[in-house]
Amino acid sequence: MAMLKALVVDDASFVRDLVKRTVRQRFPVIETTDAQNGRRAQSLMSRTTFDLVLCDWEMPEMTGLELLQWMRQQPQYQNVPFIMITSRGDKNHVIEAVKEGVSEYLGKPFSPEGLSKKIIKVMGNRLRHAMSQKGKSLEGPADAFKESATLLTQKREPSPESESTLLSPAGEKPAAARSAMRMASVRFAESTLTSVVKDINLTEVRVIAKRNQVFPGILDQAVVDIETGEGQMARLNGYVHQLQAVDKRQDTDFVSVTIRFVDEDPQKMEDLSRFVARFRSGTH
Predict the structure, then answer these.
(1) Which has the higher per-residue pLDDT, 244 or 151?
(2) What's the CA gap between 283 and 181, in Å, rounded?
(3) Cβ-based burial of 191 (10 A; exposed 0-12, middle 13-18, buried ≥19)
(4) Which of 34, 97, 247, 281 could form a disulfide with 8 if both were Cys (CB 3.0 to 4.6 A apart)?
(5) How high is the pLDDT of residue 155?
(6) Nearest to 236 by CA among 196, 275, 208
(7) Does residue 196 sit in the same domain as residue 82?
(8) Could you report the per-residue pLDDT of 200-229, keeping only the tens digit for each?
(9) Which secondary structure element, helix H or strand E, spans residue 122, and what is its range?
(10) Beta bridge mates, 220
(11) Is 127 in the same domain as 84?
């Protein structure tokens, strides 16, 4: 029977499931409950006392920062660990979260190992004591789910190469010379792909990347950074849905990566819709 309670808050069900699975496998003494936004989390926290909150920043109805601000005003939650899990990793947002009393900050995409380390850090001796009472160690087995997913793709050592030298496959012109193509940076827990957007819609994006980079595993988390214009950057959360060689040849120089989006934030969907329209019309 679990001895500690954690609340997982994220508007993307895929991310909630990944966090809950990691906690369940690494820390069997922690029971998890989830909420799709800050408002729902606030309701749950008013009825049940949780020992740990793992929360996204950008969510509809109530953001993670707003939930943190409310939480620190409640006597029973003033000292409860709060881990902010988000793709917003710029310095100003980190400072803002720290001022409001965040315990730790974990950037998306994250690995099960990275999440586990943050949980151990904020829970400290309380978690160690609970695990030892159940005859468990904090040095648990590796995440079998992630390991099996990683085996589905080959990892390659990256080579130093700038975005300006990334070429399109099959003898096409350089990506920078094509009006319908845009550069995209796809971030994973342990690597970043420099790529060009080949196709995009409201549910997924397909990018083309040179083979001599480090590629993710199927179902790995991803954050797609796309410049939407006027200095604005879209940070779209998703997971790797498909990896495929661009050519039928085994020695193909390019790999197609399909990222399926998991964001449900209305503002992000509105921004994405505008970007898709401009992309299909070939305008910048």
Answers:
(1) 244
(2) 10
(3) middle
(4) 34
(5) 37
(6) 275
(7) no
(8) 998 999 999 999 999 888 888 899 988 766
(9) helix 112-133
(10) none
(11) yes
* CA–CA dist 238, 222 (Å, integer): 5
Which residue spans within 25-77 are E strands per DSSP? 30-35, 52-56
142 and 36 in a common domain: yes
Could you tell me the CATH number of the domain that includes residue 245? 2.40.10.220
Report whether 129 contacts 123 (CB < 8 A).
no
Q: What confidence tier does 2 reach under pLDDT thresholds 50, 70, 90?
A: low
Query: From CA 227, how far away is CA 84, in angstroms rounded?
Result: 24
Tokens of 218: 């199927």
Asked whether the predicted pLDDT for residue 180 surpasses 50, the reply is no
Determine the distance from the C-alpha atom of residue 120 to the mean position of all C-alpha atoms in its chain, rounded to a whole number.
Answer: 20
Q: How confident is the model at residue 89 (pLDDT cuts 50, 70, 90)?
A: low
For 255-269, write each residue's pLDDT tens digit. Answer: 999 999 988 777 788
* Residue 278: per-residue pLDDT: 80
Q: Which residues pair with 192 in a beta bridge?
A: 187
Q: Letter for the amino acid at 264?
A: E
Give the pair of three-digit tokens for residue 177.
Answer: 């010379």
Structural domain boundaries enclosing 193: 163-281
Q: Which of 42, 217, 267, 33 is nearest to 112 (CA)?
A: 217
Task: Give CA–CA dist 28/38, Å, rounded.
Answer: 25
